[in-house]
């Protein structure tokens, strides 16, 4: 099958009178035409059927997340579709294979070229929309909870933002792997949802999460904290952590600075670290994905873990999809269809 020379892709265009997007003047979203990406050695070309939306894409639109060096300026960190072409030295994939891909950018487009190590098979039983909605969140949780924080079955895991894309995936993965998820959320209905997924839920607006953690774990504390809040929770997180606990920061929605009691850190022999997935090398992403496919993909295939897709929008309606993503009552992923 011959490939087109041009494709449609979403573009962020700075507003008139500005050169750079900002929170006050986020970029305008439009669908433009651009040349098909070239497929280099070790890469594959994916014909995109669906692309997941992540918080980082919205931040990029408002100038709060720089595109890593060498990455496409087209937004989009995860896609699912079929292999359309295979570059030199790629043996693992063939044209028409059903795949998902973890990207550094370029996903909101009809085609994307990506290092073959960043490509995974679509789990059996999932369609392209479901597959596009799980790759970034599942890879983030695998990398941080299971690789970095060295999860063990039986661990208590505190997941902040339990009703979000990362949170809902983390609850399900921890539960499936034999851990005890505890999740914070901002309303009773969201708390109920985290409980439905298998967590013990805490309403962070009406309850003190440290007291609740101590009560739930009978004074043990949590072995792992998956932290998207940072700053404003730093003292409370340190108090909630068990002896030998591992606290991994992956977001700073509660501020980039906060007080740390270093005496407590030493006394608890705790580990505090942080990670960004997007700028990792293809080799590192490949290592994360191979663990994910081996240990977690079977839970999607047998229905233990649900992809939790909230809504889909066609690529041309990306702006409306962003509005829906930002609404407070959203639970689960928003996916673009192409
Ligand atoms: N480091 C990395 O590699 C990496 C990768 C992926 C994502 N992330 C980051 O992870 C974060 C979450 O991403 P996402 O896709 O899950 O976003 P999301 O779907 O928007 O979820 C964020 C959740 O946080 C909750 N929240 C807000 N304030 C809170 C607070 N004070 N305490 C507890 N929960 C609170 C929100 O719900 P309610 O307040 O209504 O309950 C919402 O459900 C983002 O900051 C993103 O940038 C980092």
Give a summary of the structure in a few sentences.
This protein has eleven helices and 15 strands. By secondary structure, it is α/β, with parallel strands linked by helices. It is globular, with a radius of gyration of 20 Å.
- Individual helix count: 11
Task: Give the overall pLDDT as a whole number.
Answer: 96
Q: What hetero molecules are in the model?
A: NADP nicotinamide-adenine-dinucleotide phosphate
Structural class label: alpha/beta
C-alpha Rg (nearest Å): 20 Å
* DSSP strand tally: 15
What does this 3D model show about the protein?
This protein is of the alpha/beta class. 29% of the residues lie in helices and 27% in strands. It has helices at 55-61, 128-132, 135-148, 165-176, 188-197, 209-216, 234-240, 262-267, 282-295, 297-301, 318-326, and strands spanning 6-13, 28-35, 43-52, 78-86, 98-102, 111-115, 119-121, 156-159, 180-185, 200-203, 222-227, 241-249, 271-274, 309-314, 333-337. Strands 3, 4, 5, 6, 7, 14 and 15 form a seven-stranded mixed β-sheet that branches. A six-stranded parallel β-sheet has the order 10-9-8-11-12-13, sandwiched between helices. Strand 12 (241-249), helix 8 (262-267) and strand 13 (271-274) form a beta-alpha-beta unit. Helix 3 crosses helix 4, helix 3 (135-148) crosses helix 9 (282-295) and helix 6 (209-216) packs parallel to helix 7 (234-240). The longest helix is centred in the middle third of the chain and has 14 residues, at 135-148. The radius of gyration is 20 Å and the shape is globular. It starts with 5 loop residues before the first strand and ends with a strand. The structure holds NADP nicotinamide-adenine-dinucleotide phosphate. The site of NADP nicotinamide-adenine-dinucleotide phosphate has 26 residues, from helix 1, helix 4 and strand 9.
């Amino acid at each position: 099958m011959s490939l087109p020379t041009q494709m449609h892709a979403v573009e962020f265009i700075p507003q008139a009178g500005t050169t750079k997007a900002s929170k006050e003047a986020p970029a305008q979203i439009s669908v433009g035409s651009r040349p098909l990406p070239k497929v280099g050695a070790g890469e594959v070309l994916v014909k995109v059927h669906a692309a997941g939306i992540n918080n980082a894409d919205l931040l990029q639109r408002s100038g709060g997340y720089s595109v890593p060096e060498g990455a496409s300026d087209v937004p989009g960190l995860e896609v699912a579709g079929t292999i359309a072409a295979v570059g030199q030295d790629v043996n693992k994939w063939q044209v028409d294979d059903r795949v998902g891909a973890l990207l550094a950018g370029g996903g909101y487009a009809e085609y994307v070229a990506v290092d073959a190590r960043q490509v995974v098979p679509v789990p059996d039983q999932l369609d392209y929309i479901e597959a596009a909605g799980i790759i970034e969140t599942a890879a983030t949780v695998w990398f941080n909870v299971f690789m970095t924080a060295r999860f063990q079955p039986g661990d208590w895991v505190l997941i902040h933002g339990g009703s979000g894309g990362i949170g809902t995936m983390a609850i399900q993965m921890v539960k499936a792997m034999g851990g005890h998820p505890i999740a914070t959320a901002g309303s009773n209905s969201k708390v109920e949802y985290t409980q439905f997924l298998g967590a013990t839920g805490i309403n962070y607006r009406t309850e003190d999460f440290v007291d609740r953690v101590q009560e739930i774990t009978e004074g043990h504390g949590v072995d792992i904290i998956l932290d998207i809040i940072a700053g404003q929770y730093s003292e409370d997180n340190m108090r909630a952590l068990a002896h030998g606990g591992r606290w991994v920061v992956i977001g700073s929605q509660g501020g980039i600075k906060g007080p740390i009691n270093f005496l407590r850190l030493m006394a608890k022999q705790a580990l505090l670290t942080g990670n960004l997935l997007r700028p990792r090398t293809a080799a590192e992403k490949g290592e994360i994905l191979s663990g994910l496919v081996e240990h977690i993909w079977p839970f999607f295939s047998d229905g233990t873990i649900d992809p939790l897709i909230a809504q889909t929008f066609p690529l041309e309606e990306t702006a409306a999809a962003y509005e829906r993503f930002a609404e407070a009552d959203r639970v689960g992923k928003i996916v673009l269809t192409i």
